[in-house]
Amino acid sequence: MSGLGRKWAIAGIGLVILVGILVFRTTALAPIDLSQNEGTSVDLIEVDANQTANHLAEAVRFKTISTQDRTLFDPTVFSAFQDWLAVTYPNFYAAVSTEAVAGSSQMNTWAGTDPSLDPVVFLAHQDVVPADEAPGSGWDKPPFAGLIEDGFVWGRGAIDDKASLIAILEAADRLAASGYQPKRTLIFAFGHDEEVGGTGALAVASLLKERNIHPWAVIDEGGAITTNMPDVAGPVARIGVAEKGYLTLILTSKAEGGHSSTPPVTTSLGALARAIAAVEAHPFEQKLDGVLIKMLRATARSEEVGFGTRLAMANLWLFGRTVEDAMKGSKSGRAMLGTTIAPTILHAGIKENALPREAQAFVNFRLHARDSVADVVAHVIAAIDNPDIEVTIANPPGNEPSPVSQIGTGPYAWLEQAINDGFPGTLVAPNVVLGGTDSRYFALVTDDIYRFAPYTFDSSDFGRIHGLNERMGVEDFAHGVQVYYMMLERAGQIEN
What we know:
Layout: H1 3-28, H2 49-61, H3 75-88, H4 90-95, E1 97-101, E2 105-110, E3 120-125, E4 148-149, E5 152-154, H5 162-177, E6 186-191, H6 199-210, E7 217-220, E8 225-227, E9 236-243, E10 245-254, E11 258-259, H7 268-280, H8 290-299, H9 307-314, H10 316-327, H11 331-337, E12 340-348, E13 354-355, E14 358-367, H12 373-384, E15 390-393, H13 411-422, E16 427-433, E17 449-451, E18 456-458, E19 471-473, H14 474-491
Parallel strand pairs: 3-6, 3-7, 7-17, 8-18, 9-16
Antiparallel strand pairs: 1-2, 2-6, 4-5, 5-19, 8-9, 10-14, 10-15, 11-13, 12-14
């Protein structure tokens, strides 16, 4: 055999081996028969869907609104809401000890019989973002009327986050009424200002740290069961095992004022515009990470996923760059791959023919786990490369990215089993929450934080959160109550 022939033969053998490796790894990532993940036969409690929907609708009618202007905060509305909770859920409040924290936040402790066991903490927040109530604002139903129509509870907070708050209380009240006594302590923390920073949740977490309490797990909003998503149309329970950090930087430019007919060479607005453009022109590193890889591999096991996609997901060592490039084609994909940059507010000038002496821009960043607040500040200063542009943190010190919780073991496995039992035929995948939740503060006391609420949402529902026509399905809400009951009952009996 000639030298060229030997080279071709070696290349052919190498190709066969490569194909064999690719196929073997793809076969190992075979679709899951979801009929096998139904867990044990579990009888969920009976729930009156109309009654629970009415309670959620009543909760929506309380205008527990948080705004950036803290002087507009109305504690009397929160007090009235909490009075309503106490009347509506008397069994729960009789079983727990209740503490007011940071004014309008609330921590409720259901003491377990074994104080040696670390507690499980369930979080939900009372506050909601504002909604325009004016006619023609775009709402099909008045945002604070709490209407139940077409099989949905409509209104601001119907999803975020009064759904979790009310469902947890519906379940816990029934559990307390049954005479249940947890072995492991259960703590229920209801923040009052999650939408504007979460000082209430921070105060609760700090209180736990002060008391040397280290939860076995913290459960909060942030993940849910999705349908009709771009990666998988069928139901996928997405458990948030981490969340991105949060930082807003203020870019300030100063220059000569005066009449616009005789402008200087460099104006404050011109310099600021170039600074914003420079920041956007220097994006942060975007690439796959450990959580994202596990998520992709989990969703690739859906029977809907074709062989080619599964081949890529099973062999990211070879196709990783291709997958990254594909993800960069969507806003959500780019957000998952790295730290995002979003200029959001501009302040400059008061008259069209007068030069502003100062111009400011607020730029919001959601930090990937590979970046820190200090990294982002340094990156922005280097990108602008202009010492005349002042860079400051809007709300010091900012929020670092959360730690990554256990995946597949510990509390994750417990939560996965509850999903299998409560939502048979549902794929389970880890996820990173792109927004912020109150749970981030509990990294002070535990690494095991999971962001998941037991509801099913269509892909079209996500635009309603903080948007127009927020709503919760009546039957979906009732089922969420059933699953929360199971979760609470089991959480109180965990021994390891």
